[in-house]
Amino acid sequence: MPMSPRQLPDLPVVDVLDEVKRALEHTGRGVVVAPPGAGKTTLIPLALLDESWLGEQRIVMLEPRRLSARAAARRMALPNPRRTQDWSGNPYRGGHRGDLDPATSA
Question: Per its UniProt record, what InterPro entries does this chain match (predicted)?
Fold first, then answer.
């Protein structure tokens, strides 16, 4: 079930989610530039998960540090911890935490 704007925290990226979705639907790629704390890492992937155009494609996010990756995975698990465990993990040099589905990773 897609996330409704009512379920999303009031962060700056909420205002541009429709634009991001349209751009990704047409090009399949995107880079979002916004200040720290805007919701880029945690809200956009969650909002995209149930888009029909995503199909078998995956959402790949890169974080510069293990701490950032772990914090993002924990934050994304807050709305629905059980569902997020099915697709979230954070691989890093020397190992990984979480169970990664071969199709998606966060």
Answer: P-loop_NTPase
